[in-house]
Design goal:
Layout: H1 3-17, E1 27-38, E2 45-56, E3 60-64, H2 71-78, E4 86-91, E5 94-95, H3 101-111, E6 112-115, H4 127-137, H5 144-152, H6 168-180, E7 186-190, H7 198-215, E8 218-223, E9 234-239, E10 242-248
Parallel strand pairs: 3-8, 3-9, 6-7, 7-8
Antiparallel strand pairs: 1-2, 1-4, 4-5, 9-10
Bound molecules: adenosine-5'-diphosphate and magnesium ion.
Magnesium ion (MG) binds near residues 72 and 190.
């Protein structure tokens, strides 16, 4: 279908989906009764005990909780790295639990950007080459998009530097550029400032915040550092595999104001 009729139908769908309230299209991530248990019998570890959660597209969500509360497990399940023991996970309209290995790999490549505590850059490649490696993986050749991703985190002037010649905060921003170059729908950050001091940590938080605000990308940031929660649109608190708290923050502080 094309021409005026197609345009008309599209307009009608637009109107219908923006008529009010959260529509399925506004929900980037949906978890329904998600359980993750490692091992079984007496040695079973209940990492997630039935999580129900909807995260809106474009939200900057901070997940707090002590070590062992299930934060990393939650990220791994949303990112399609591990399957849930039971329950359903839907991201960007795809129900992960129905995907086969090949489709899951495609999902991770196309939709998900991961950022971890340790940056895992290739030490023998420059900042630009580290980003370009991932760009090539998703079929994007040529340096333009990799340079643009470095620019988005304020590092285009460091493109030719090797990781060993960069600060921890700069390396983490290269890791963010590497995640962004895939243009993922969601960005999953697991303790991204865990090994950084306040000043470099703020630079990383600013870079993440900017990508959420300028691209409408959904960002889920996991941390045990409750000071970071101030900049979130929404704060979730986990404990012993359960969601203990879920609150919206209509007026989050700027990443530059975060302090610890
Ligand atoms: P957090 O990130 O909040 O520290 P995790 O999600 O890493 O918590 O872990 C939640 C619980 O699940 C912990 O008790 C942890 O020991 C356990 N766990 C995590 N991964 C595994 C695994 N691969 N095998 C067995 N137990 C695990
Ligand atoms: Mg963890």
């Amino acid at each position: 279908m094309n021409g005026p009729l197609a345009a008309h139908v599209e307009a009608a769908i637009e109107t219908a989906t923006h008529a009010g309230g959260a529509t399925p299209a506004d929900v980037a991530i949906r978890l329904e009764r998600v359980v993750k248990t490692y091992g079984d019998g007496e040695v079973a570890v209940h990492a997630l005990r039935g999580i129900d959660l909807e995260i809106e597209a474009g939200q900057f969500v901070v997940v707090l909780g002590p070590s062992g509360s299930g934060k990393t497990t939650l990220m791994n399940l949303i990112g399609g790295i591990e399957p849930p023991t039971s329950g359903r996970i839907t991201v960007a309209g795809r129900e992960l639990t129905t995907l086969d290995d090949r489709a899951l790999t495609a999902y991770r490549r196309a939709e998900v950007g991961f950022i971890f505590q340790f940056f895992n850059l290739v030490p023998t490649l420059t900042a630009l080459e580290n980003v370009a490696l991932v760009a090539e993986l998703v079929g994007d050749r040529g340096p333009e998009s990799s340079l643009a991703a470095l620019r988005a985190v304020g590092l285009d002037d460091r493109a030719d530097h090797f990781p060993g010649a960069m600060s921890g905060g700069e390396q983490q921003r290269v890791a963010i550029a590497r995640a962004l170059v895939k243009r993922p729908t969601i960005l999953l950050c697991d303790e991204p400032t865990g090994s950084l001091d306040l000043e470099t940590g703020r630079q990383v938080l600013s870079a993440l915040h900017r990508t959420s605000r300028t691209s409408g990308r959904t960002v889920v940031l996991v941390t045990h550092n409750s000071a970071i929660a101030g900049m979130a649109d929404r704060v979730l608190r986990m404990g012993s595999g359960e969601l203990l708290e879920d609150r919206l923050q209509p007026q989050p502080i700027a990443p530059e104001e975060v302090t610890w």
